Amino acid sequence: MQTLVLLSTKIGNPLNADKTAEYVMGFGMPDRDAVFIEVFNKAFYGDDSPINVLLEWCLNNSEKTRNDTILLASKMVALFLISPNRALRDKSTMALINLLVGKTELLISLLDFYKDADDPYISERLFAVAFGCIVRESDHEKIRYLAIQVYNIVFNQPIVFPNILLRDFAKNIIDYAIYILGDINIDREKVTPPYNTEFPSIPDDKEIASYYYDYEESRF
């Protein structure tokens, strides 16, 4: 994994972030977490660790970097968001904001790349990144474009994804755009809670009891 992180931003390399992200996200969430949370956590600590080197590069990135390199770095860093390690998640979030501010097209490409991710830990932080980018944006057309894209991704859907943090970041993005620009030609009722998500089915006590394990049993 340390080698893959080092190769992640290499354009044209067959083991860059495109391949790594495809491989990691090919696992279902339980299997992905079981393997990669530990791997990322071990590879994070230490100032000279590949993950920290990549994150520091993102936090100090210059505007001269090629867009395809930035997108590769973003795809790799977004993988770290599966981790429950708050230090790694927060540093990755700030790295993505710094990397993508002013680059709305790349940000939308990243959101699109992870749109089918079966992990709300990734999704909610990517919309936090989008919010961090929009409040740092001075170009009104980019603000409008990002807000409309977020509206279409999150709210202009048959079901609004049932994650309170994702909804909150997405709504704040649109509210900020309206505050700056006024009308942005969306249906504001769709952005205003309550949303159209059905409450999930909750198991009753009898069903829950069927999963009970006797942890004191000798064969456990």
Topology of helices and strands:
Layout: H1 2-7, H2 17-25, H3 29-44, H4 50-59, H5 67-79, H6 86-100, H7 104-113, H8 120-134, H9 140-155, H10 164-181, H11 188-191, H12 205-209
Describe the overall structure.
The chain has 220 residues and is mainly α. It is 62% helix and 0% strand. Helix 7 (104-113) packs antiparallel against helix 8.
What keyword list fits this structure?
220 residues, mainly alpha
Question: How far apart, in Å, are the first and last alpha carbons?
Answer: 34 Å
Order of helices and strands: HHHHHHHHHHHH
Count of β-strands: 0
Shape: flat
Helical fraction equals 55-70%
- Specify the number of helices: 12
What's the overall average pLDDT, rounded? 95
Look at the helices and sheets and give the structural class. mainly alpha
User: Low-confidence parts, pLDDT < 50 over ≥5 residues?
Assistant: none
Percentage of residues in strands: under 5%
Q: Biggest β-sheet, characterized?
A: none
Radius of gyration: 20 Å
